[in-house]
Amino acid sequence: MTSQPVRTRTDVCAEPLCTAYDTALLDLDGVVYIGGVAVEHAAAALSGARERGMRLAYVTNNASRPAAVVAGQLTAMGVPAEPADVITSAQAVARLVAEAVPPGARVLAVGGEGLHGPLREHGLLVVESADDDPAAVVQGHGGPAMPWGRLMEAAFAVQRGVPWFASNADLTIPTPRGIAPGNGAALEVVRLATGAEPRVAGKPLPPMHRETIIRTGARRPLVVGDRLDTDIEGAYNGGVDALLVLTGVTGAAELLAAEPRHRPAYVAADLRGLSAAQPEVAVAGAQAEGFVARCGGWSASAGGTEPGLRLDGEGQPLDGLRALCAAAWTYAGEGSCGLDPGKALARLGL
Question: Per-residue pLDDT for the chain (350 aa), expressed as one digit of tens each?
């Protein structure tokens, strides 16, 4: 992983993002759909980007469902997708395991068919017990029906020194009924029993990004996500640009407080941003009123003699947010901006 320069503003892109980048690496929940329902404008925006030549790839940390099932769900929502368009953390971890064990090795898989299928694709033999002499243990979210005994088998094998892998370490997952424990919570059970640490493949770690590039052949990819700590950090770790959409987890206040590895190249209200250019943000050095940034009809400042983040002007709310990001990120440098953005964001309705 190479060190990335500290981003102090969002980037300018004179042409639509869907023509400037060849492939969109799209997160799903919070970006394309929420709780099984398509995000407003998502289907039309993705169709428009595809028509202008952008390849669409759907990248998910959820290892419980096979790619074909995910593609079917997207198609039913009006977002046509083939299984080859879907990249899961199960696929990424299966490649890691296959590279670490002999061909045809036995693997104790704790998870559902979403995990078993990719392991078989790599020629590995899925087994059920620590007594089956596995060469590796791999964990992926198995859904609500996964029995406790599967975690016990994983713990027994790891205690014996068997290498331990995990599809992802998300502690929680969103469901229509609320927030549920994710694969990271199941990893904690085995970790507490063994004291070991798994090798994790999913976002924001590099194996997931590598899997997407291998499977898509992207030369200039654009990561599209709603989470700073997985999507945007994953793009940072992979050395590629990212678009943050404000339809999911991350709000404007969290974006302003982002530390360098969580700062996206671009920001948009939703997936319609794929077919739009991105405006220039100008930043002035330290002045009496602090660090000043301008975008569109807005001027934002951070620091100086008055506390907090300040915003003046009028225009498109997202331009105001971009100006605020530049002022806050320049003020924060390599840290996180701790200035109160409340009044400034209230002017934007964010």
Answer: 456 789 999 999 999 999 999 999 999 999 999 878 899 999 999 999 999 999 999 999 999 999 999 999 999 999 989 999 999 999 999 999 999 999 999 999 999 999 999 999 999 999 999 999 999 999 999 888 889 999 999 999 999 999 999 999 998 887 767 778 999 999 999 999 999 999 999 999 999 999 999 999 999 999 999 999 999 999 999 999 999 999 998 999 999 999 999 999 999 999 999 999 999 999 986 665 689 999 999 999 998 777 789 999 999 999 999 999 999 999 999 999 989 999 999 999 98
Active-site residue identified among 11, 27, 270, 319: 27
Domains and CATH numbers, the chain: 17-61+205-275 (3.40.50.1000), 90-196 (3.40.50.1000), 282-348 (no CATH)
Number of H helices and number of E strands within the chain? 12, 19
pTM for the predicted model, two decimal places: 0.92
Cα dihedral across residues 115, 120, 124, 126: positive or negative: positive
Residue 27 a catalytic site member: yes
From the list 29, 85, 231, 319, the catalytic residue is: 29
The separation between CA 78 and the C-alpha centre of its own chain, rounded to angstroms, equals: 22
Question: CB-based contacts of 177: which residues, under 8 Å, 6+ apart?
Answer: none
